[in-house]
C-alpha cells in the first residue's frame, strides 16, 4: 500500500487569471515534467493541431477557455498553440479507463478507474467572475474535469467505451468542463453534448437538482440520450460502438442494478462503490482499470464527497458554503492504493 494525495485548489477570478495562477503552480510541480516523459514514451505528442479550428470551436462553445489557455501560456512562457496541444483537450487521446456510476434522485456516486501514473491529483473549486458557472471536481489534463458539479446542481461524469474510430474533436475531460461551466440542467447538457464534436466514444452521465438522470451515449458519429441511473463501460443503444470484451462492464452493471433499491441512501450507495467487499471497487491499476477515487455529489444540498482508495470515509465539502465566501481549509486529501507508481503531482517519475 502506498499513500497518495490530491491537492485542493480554490480560486475566484476571471479565466485569464485562473490560467495564470495554475501556470505558476505548475512551474513548481513535477506534473509537466512527468507529462513530458509520458508523451515521449508513447510518442503521442508528435502531432500538429489545426490552431484556428480549435480556437473557433472554443469561441462557439466556451470562449472563456481561450482566456484560461492564454493565462497558462503566459505563465509558462509558451505559445498559445503549445497550450492548446497540452491543455486544450482537442485531438489528444485519453488513456483507457474503467469507471462505474450510480445515481439516485438526490445523489450521484462515481468510481474513477484508471492508472495512477496518469492521475493529476488536483481537486478544483473555481468560481469565475467573468462568465460561466462555478464548479467543483477533480482535474484531468489541467483544464478538464474527470467529474464534477456546478453551482446550479448539475453533475456530470463519464465512462470510457472505445477509442476505435476516433475522429477530430474534444476528449471527455474537456467536454465535462464545458458542460459544467455552460449548462444549468440535464436538458441543456444534452443539447450541448449533441453540439460538441467528440474525439472518441464515451457515455456521459447527468443528474440535476430535479433528480433527472440521463446517460448520453456519444461517439464521433452519433449522440443519443436515454433515462438511466446506472452506467459502466458499454453502450446500450449504440451497441456497434462497443468493445469486443464487455464482461467486466456487464458484471459491474448487473451488480449495481441488483443492489439499487428505492431505500438506498447516499451512504449505502457510496459504500456500494467504495467498499472492496462489494466488488465494484477495482485494484487492476496495471490495466488502467483500478479505482483511484470515489466521488459523490448531492445536487440539492450542494455538497461533494471525495475519497482516494477503498473502504474510506470521504471528505465532505460544503460547496454552497464555498460559493458564499467560505474557504477550503483542507490543502490535501489523502488515501492509500494497492500500487507503487505515484500520481504525477507527487514526485518525479522515472
Architecture overview:
There is one protein chain. The chain is an alpha+beta fold. The chain has one domain: 4-Layer Sandwich (Penicillin V Acylase, Chain A), CATH 3.60.60.10. Helix content is 30%, strand content 28%. The chain has ten helices and 17 strands. The chain has helices at 15-27, 31-42, 51-61, 64-76, 80-87, 172-182, 186-195, 247-259, 266-274, 319-323; strands at residues 2-13, 100-103, 108-114, 122-128, 135-140, 144-145, 147-150, 155-162, 201-207, 213-218, 223-227, 230-231, 283-284, 289-298, 303-308, 315-318, 332-337. Strands 1, 4, 5, 6, 7, 8, 9, 10, 11 and 17 form a ten-stranded mixed beta sheet that branches. Strands 2, 3, 12, 13, 14, 15 and 16 form a seven-stranded antiparallel beta sheet that branches. β7 (147-150) and β8 form a beta hairpin. It is globular and about 50 Å long. The model has no long low-confidence stretch (mean pLDDT 94).
